[in-house]
């Protein structure tokens, strides 16, 4: 799967779930893969993720989720009237996505790239979008790409609980969809359980509560363009 990064004068390409290789005509290439190897000219970054094997039945996958942290909240969200479904309405998700990432001070990412390459799931309550997620897929894998919700909007306690339920429901709906559509692996999108950042540790706990197994993953990148190399060095110095 190839993802073009737009909005720059340089041609940058992303490849998901693919072994690194040279790409003629590119200024920079990035690969995400589970393969650990030495590829000439590529810089490697190792990460950790949590993956769910979809060879099991959906009931078996459900049984591995934490009862008091995932199952109860999903069932509670349903009883409260939260609904989740796959959607093509990226326009409705954008304001929530933008505000959430701004509040969390997360890195910028092109929404155009997300909407052109991702599969969207939206959670609604009382007719309003309160949570959602965009997932990147190929013929075998589904990986959580970006997740966002209204939980940082200063809601009261009950509404925060409902949004927490919705967050879990979005991921479970994506897992169910992946299973029903014949994918083999659901990737929770990366974890850092030993981070010094308590927020990252909490996020890892949340993701691992869905019952996946830890797995090493790798990012590889290679820059071909000399002007781009200079620009990247300058940005690093400024930062």
What keywords describe this structure?
single chain; about 240 residues; alpha+beta; Aminopeptidase; 10 strands; about 40% helix; about 30% strand; globular
Brief write-up:
With 239 residues, this protein is α+β, with helices and mostly antiparallel strands.
The CATH topology of the largest domain: Aminopeptidase
Structural class: alpha+beta
Gyration radius over CA? 19 Å
- Spatial arrangement of strands, main beta sheet: 1-2-3-10-4-9-8-7-6-5
What is the second-level CATH architecture of the largest domain? 3-Layer(aba) Sandwich
Q: Any idea of the CATH class of the largest domain?
A: Alpha Beta
Write down the secondary-structure element order.
Answer: EEEEHHEHHEEEHEHEH
Count of β-strands: 10
Explain what the structure shows.
The structure is a single chain. The chain is of the alpha+beta class. The chain has two domains: 67 residues, no CATH class; 166 residues, 3-Layer(aba) Sandwich (Aminopeptidase), CATH 3.40.630. It has a ten-stranded mixed β-sheet with strand order 1-2-3-10-4-9-8-7-6-5. A hairpin with a 6-residue loop joins strand 1 and strand 2. Helix 2 crosses helix 5. The mean pLDDT is 93.
